[in-house]
Structure formats: structure tokens, C-alpha cells
Amino acid sequence: METPGVDSRVAGAAAGAELRWMGGRLLDATGGFVGSLSPRIPGEQDFTPVLHRLTPETTTSVEPEIDYEGLPQGASTSTHMLAGSVAGIMEHCLMYPIDCVKTRMQSLHPEPAARYSSVMDALRQIVRTEGVWRPIRGVNVLAVGAGPAHALYFASYEKIKFSLSDSIQPGANSHFANGVAGCIATVLHDTIMNPAEVVKQRMQMFNSPYRGVLDCVGSLLRRDGPAAFYRSFTTQLTMNVPFQALHFMTYEYLQELLNPHRQYNPSSHVASGALAGALAAAATTPLDVCKTLLNTQEAQAVHLLPAAASGPGGRHISGLGEACRTVYRTGGAAAFFKGVHARVIYQMPSTAISWSVYEFFKYVITERQHQRSRLRGGDRDGAK
Q1: Nearest residue to 272 via CA among 186, 369, 351
Q2: What residues are paired with 310 via a beta bridge?
Q3: Is residue 109 a contact partner of residue 300, using CB atoms and an 8 Å limit?
């Protein structure tokens, strides 16, 4: 039924719906009141439509889904740094006792009292013979280094990953970009973390001669100078660059399988992180054995060096090539995989904790930022 003077908005409101006219009122198919037509005012058209909405429009009632991967502009870097810092500290502190066992099991010439058959056997012996606090000795220096190192690590990874992915495959995930971003982030991370790693492993050694972290730092500076803190840096990078490239590519690939919509999904983050960490840890164990040797300068291994290797500060193992030769000379090819079980057992929960904590804090921080943005938008609409 057509009524002269009805505004086009009434027709638009009736599109796709069954409306009935009764006594100057518009009713929908269920008899609900939709609108009315006011009487003519002199000088105007016969009727003026007045619409009454019983429910809000669909476009305003549906909350937009929060995409915690697409952070609000201007807040992404600080969010990644805060989440990464918390994740790094929790990862290293919670897994520190297993890390202590790994360091000891990678020893090329362990003392008779420091020979362990498994990770649990090592923990039991350390607690029984050296005290309950011995497995976490030196954790404070690692916490101090892990905070800023992981903040820079995750922030740079996210920034580089998205920039490269947009350049290589706009709107899609690029495994090449993930690998490159992981490599660059690792270089920045290890620059900060390497001195803490040196002190940590010196403190973890069986019969460590140092009274504490400050005593260890002072002793290294007096005997070997600042170079002692970066003696294993090239080996650390040689190990960590392929480790992190494999780790990040595996994690992102597993996320595509387990969490294709890239929503916050704790179980997928834990599973992807654990599997990625285990694979990368097993593949890079030989380099980790060499790194441990360079950091600890194990006395029995140093004595095997030829006299020509003596430097101004006495004999010491320097460089990846010399470390590889020493490891092979000590135990053959099998020596490169000493402590592989402890390393995998350490890395699986370690990377699972790191990714799950990082993704959780990123999600929480992002959600709060979105809520504040919505509140500010609502205030502005109210003011209008």
C-alpha cells in the first residue's frame, strides 16, 4: 500500500520486512509498533514520518572482535616489550634448576660426585649433597639479564616480522620473514644476555669457587678482563641464530595448523612452543656443548690444550673451532650430544612457558587498551 507524503526512510525501514498500516500506526508482522505518521502542518507535506526503533541497529550492537595480534597504533612496541620482559624472567627463573643440571651434564670431565644418570637423579644428588638452594644459585643474575634481553627480543621480532611479511606476502604469514626476524632478534638478545650467561654457568659448576655473583664478576674482570664475558659470543650466536630461526618458523607453522585464526588460545601456544623448543634444542645441542665449554673453561679440558694455546692470562679455550676440537678430542662425536636429554627437557617447558606467558600478557594488555579506546569513544559520543 502506498501512502502519499511518506518519507523514503519509512520505505527503507520496511525493506525486507512485512509491515501493516492500522489507525495511523505502522505495525510489523508480529504486531509490534514500528512508527506513526504525524498530521500535516500548514505549509508542509501531508504527513511527516516518525520512526520508533525498539532495538539498536545491528551495526552498533555487535562488539568488534578484539584482534590482539593487531595492537593499537602507538602502543605495540611497549606492549611487546612489557610482555616479553615478564615472559623472559618467568621462563628462566622457573626452569633454572633444570638449566643447572644441563650445565653439569655437559661437563666433559665431571668429578666422580657430579656424575648423574638422569635429570631427576642429578637434582636429588645436588639437593642431598649441596643443599636445597644449590640448584638456583645464580638465578638473580639471570633474572636481571633476562628482563631487558627478552623485552628487546620480542619487540624487535614482532616489528621485523610484520614489516617483512607485508613486503614479501602482503596480508599473509611469511616463514622466511619469521626466520629473518628471529635471527635479528637473537643478535640483539645475545648482546645483552651473554655476560649473564657466563656468570650463571660459572655459578652452576660443581665445586664452583665463587661466593656469589659479585665475587664471580670481580674475579673474571681481574683475571681475564671484560673479554671473558664475550668469549663465547660468536659461538652463542652460531648456536642461537639457527636455533631461533628453526624455533620461530616451527612455532609459526604450528600456529597456522593449531590456531589458524590467530586468536588467543593458551593450549595452542603451549603445544606449539614446547614442540618448537624441543626440535630446535635437539638440533643445536653440539653447539651448546661448545658454548658451555667456552663459558666455564673447564679445568680438565683446559689442561688438554697444547702449550702453544697459553695466553697472557694462562691457558684458555678460545673460539668455536678450538672448542670443537677439544670436545672431539675428549669424547669423540658422542661428546657433542652430552646432556641432550637435559637440554630438551629444559627447552620444552621453557619455550612453552615463554610463549604462553608472552601471548597472555600481550592479550591482556591489548584488551585493556581496546576497552579504554571504546570508553573514550563512548564519552565523545555522549558529549555530542
Answers
A1: 351
A2: 315
A3: yes
Based on its alpha-carbon atoms, the radius of gyration of the chain, rounded to whole angstroms, reads 32
Which three cell numbers, joined as nine digits, stand for 90? 618467568
**Mean pLDDT, rounded, of the chain:** 79
Mark 58-95 as b/e (b = at least 16 C-beta within 10 Å).
eeeeeeeeeebbebeeeebeebbbbbbbbbbbbbbbeb
Measured between alpha carbons, how far is 105 from 110 in angstroms, rounded to an integer? Answer: 8
Residue 74 pLDDT class (50, 70, 90 cuts): very low
The residue among 294, 106, 310 whose CA lies nearest residue 206 is 106
Where is 156: in which H helix or E strand? Answer: helix 139-168
Cell numbers placing 328: 672431539
Name the H helices within 169-259.
Answer: 175-204, 213-224, 233-258
> Is the whole model's pTM more than 0.70, yes or no?
no
Reported as a single tens digit per residue, the pLDDT across 111-131 is 888 899 899 999 999 999 999
Q: Is a pLDDT exceeding 50 seen at residue 61? A: no
For 308, the grid coordinates are: 702453544
Cell of 11: 520505505
H/E element holding 97?
Answer: helix 96-105
The Cα-based distances of 130 to 137, 202, 216 in angstroms read 11, 16, 19
> How many Å apart are CA 269 and CA 288, to the nearest integer?
25
Length of the chain: 384
Q: Are 313 and 223 in contact (CB under 8 A)?
A: yes
- 8 A C-beta contact, residue 155 and residue 81: yes
CB-CB contact of 37 with 6 (8 Å): yes
Among residues 149, 144, 143, which one has the least CA distance to residue 91? 143
Contacts of residue 196, Cβ cutoff 8 Å, sequence gap at least 6: 141, 142, 144, 145, 146, 149
Confidence of residue 78 (pLDDT cuts 50, 70, 90): confident
Please give the single-letter amino acid code of residue 239.
Answer: M
Burial of 162: CB neighbours in 10 Å, binned 0-12, 13-18, 19+: middle
Kind plus residue range of the DSSP H or E element containing 282: helix 266-283
Task: Please give the pLDDT value at position 14.
Answer: 43
3-state helix, strand, coil in the chain (%, to 5): 65, 5, 25
